[in-house]
Write a structure and sequence with these properties.
- The protein is mainly alpha-helical.
- The protein has one domain.
- The chain contains four helices and no strands.
């Protein structure tokens, strides 16, 4: 149902998947899932860019910038999560030593 509504609005399946994942990623706290989200988002963004090159209108400039900003934010969140985990591991190792 959801994809049919968006397809009638002119969005591709790739863009629908990208938007769904982009909306879900900031709420994801499980690190391995967040890594998967970022990786999949990068692949979908590359696919959208390739699709845009094949069409005369391409991706709207503002949309492309917004998507890039979202990806940067997710990458930052992933980095902070990784740093916190590494620090926790170091603290545990100090306690166990």
């Amino acid at each position: 149902m959801f994809s049919r509504v968006f397809l009638t609005m002119g969005l591709s399946k790739t863009e629908i998947n990208f938007r769904r994942l982009l909306a879900a990623a900031p709420q994801q706290h499980h690190q391995s899932k967040l890594i998967h989200y970022v990786s999949t988002l990068r692949e979908l963004l590359e696919q959208l860019a390739a699709d845009a090159e094949r069409t005369p209108e391409g991706l709207p400039r503002k949309l492309q910038e917004d998507l890039t900003d979202e990806m940067v934010g997710l990458a930052r969140q992933l980095k902070e999560s990784t740093l916190m985990m590494n620090q926790s591991i170091k603290n545990i190792e100090k306690v166990n030593s």
